[in-house]
Amino acid sequence: MPLRHRFAPLDNARLAHLCGPLDEHLRSIEAALGVSVARRGDQFRIDGAKGASEQALALLEALYAKSARPISPEQVQLALASTLARQGDIARADELTAQGPQLNTRRADLQGRTTNQVAYLRNILGHDLSFGIGPAGTGKTFLAVACAVDALERSAVQRIILTRPAVEAGERLGFLPGDLAQKVDPYLRPLYDALYDLMGLDRVTKAFEKGLIEVAPLAFMRGRTLNHAFVILDEAQNTTPEQMKMFLTRIGFGTRAVVTGDVSQIDLPKGSRSGLIEAERILSKVSGVAFTRFTSVDVVRHPLVARIVEAYDRAHQNEPTE
Questions:
Q1: DSSP summary character for residue 297
Q2: How many other C-beta atoms are found inside a 10 Å radius of the C-beta of residue 132?
Q3: Nearest of 264, 267, 260, 263 to residue 234 by alpha carbon
Q4: Which DSSP letter does residue 220 get?
């Protein structure tokens, strides 16, 4: 039996914000939850499985509460991701999210959106060394950078250091022109994007000028001891075991380190071992080290990304072993 709902009192502007241009937001909800949403005036009809229909109605009500201003497609996708992540454990996920750490960044609404994301934030804030391992779109890098910005704002560290191995994703780009920063720039672009979002362009630029933020390829970390810093090693699945050990032994006093990576996207030469996989095996029981494992449930990008991740996982599971 279809669910019917009417938003009262009637507010055409808020209804327009809720539905989006040409009902774009309603179509996104339909595709993600497998329901049909029809609207006539202020009356909504939702057809589909009972659980999915109830989720769609709850999501519409939550979005309507925020519809005093236009709702962006990104807001809808994040709300959908949060809804999908809570399937089967709604009360527990809400409880964890409500108690999640609050970070001091330009994004006042920043918090973990899934159970694993909240656990990841707690692991970062409670351990000197944390690993975030999982597929693209789960917030591993963004949340790590947010914790780094928070630590810098609170003067808990003196600087932020961002690094990653300069390994190309299946392409051969040749020798890049420019100085060191220009050569490394393309590889560290996701980290820059997160910094700009969390601090703003002007503040990031000034922080670089003052040496509060440093970027460097992993190869340039050898021989250094990093004290009173927040260090992030991104794309760690592309480190060799030797590089990973070298990085981990750079940690000095007052330093917090976060290692992120996706072991399903290793770009090392065929036959090479991933330092991230080996580190998880060797360090899983070491005191002071925390591991957070993400799955497709934690993807907070377009819902299609989660389905793509799941499809690839199924395909790899069905591949014959050699």
A1: G
A2: 29
A3: 260
A4: G
149-188 residue pLDDT tens:
999 988 889 999 998 887 654 444 455 566 555 666 677 7
Is 274 in contact with 133 (CB distance < 8 Å)? no
C-beta separation of 303 from 32 below 8 A:
yes
* Tokens representing residue 247 in the block: 């990085």
User: How many residues are listed for the chain in this entry?
Assistant: 322
Cβ atoms of 164 and 185 closer than 8 Å: no
In the chain, % of residues over pLDDT 70: 83
What's the DSSP call for residue 270?
Answer: T
CA atoms within 13 Å, Cβ hemisphere of 9? 0
Task: Convert the pLDDT of each residue in 254-293 to its tens digit.
Answer: 899 999 999 988 888 888 899 999 999 999 889 889 999 9
- What lies within 8 Å, CB to CB, of 202 at 6+ separation is none
Whole-Å CA distances, 155 to 128, 230, 265, 277, 297? 16, 11, 35, 33, 34
CA pair distance 97, 137, nearest whole angstrom: 18
Instruction: Please report the pLDDT score of residue 177 as a whole number.
Output: 60
Strand order in the sheet with 129-133: 213-217, 159-164, 229-233, 256-261, 129-133, 289-293
What's the pLDDT score for residue 85?
Answer: 57
Task: Give the pLDDT band of residue 307 (cuts 50, 70, 90).
Answer: confident
What contacts 269, CB < 8 A, 6 or more positions away?
none
Q: How many CA atoms lie within 13 A of 4 on its CB side?
A: 5
Q: Which residue shows structure tokens 């750490």?
A: 101
Segment 223-249, tens digit of pLDDT = 888 899 999 999 999 999 999 999 999
How far is the CA of 193 from the CAs of 56, 140, 185, 200, in angstroms? 32, 14, 11, 10
- Cβ–Cβ < 8 Å for 244, 236: yes
* Contact assessment for residue 151 and residue 157, using Cβ atoms and an 8 Å cutoff: yes
